[in-house]
Specification:
137 residues, Multidrug-efflux Transporter Regulator, Chain: A, Domain 2, 3 strands, 3-stranded antiparallel beta sheet, single chain, mainly alpha
């Protein structure tokens, strides 16, 4: 049996993160010691690794719960999991496109700002963000 400190060390997570996952229903200690310490087994460690890997793929905790539910459901099949993965991939691609558009917009603002010594009230970036052209002196 592993204490929360030991399982945190082995999983690379903080004890606070593990407590949060427990609160969210993603993990549960197998039992508590007589002194009230949470005790976990190797299955809990595997689940924590699963959670970390899923988060690195962009899955939210709610989506991870869905994956875990599918994993333990006899009525589920691989195509159910694949569907969630495809949906997540499409969401990520949309976010990437949105962030690329934001980056391009910032590039345009930065390129349009030619004079570093201008007072802030004549800043072309601020005026572009306000949508009001600044007077040039």
């Amino acid at each position: 049996m592993l204490t929360i400190g030991k399982i945190a060390e082995l999983s690379g997570l903080t004890t606070d993160a593990i407590r949060y996952y427990e609160k969210e229903g993603l993990i549960a200690p197998l039992q508590k010691s007589g002194a009230g310490y949470r005790l976990y087994n190797d299955d809990a460690l595997r689940r924590l690794h699963f959670i970390r890997q899923a988060q690195q793929c962009g899955f939210s905790l709610a989506e991870i719960m869905q994956l875990l539910t599918l994993q333990h459901s006899d009525a589920s099949c691989c195509s159910d999991v694949r569907k969630l993965a495809v949906e997540k991939k499409l969401q990520l691609e949309t976010r990437i496109r949105d962030m690329q558009a934001m980056s391009s917009a910032l590039d345009a603002l930065i390129t349009g700002c030619k004079v570093d010594a201008q007072p802030v009230d004549q800043c072309t970036i601020l005026s572009a963000l306000e949508g009001v052209p600044r007077e040039k002196n």
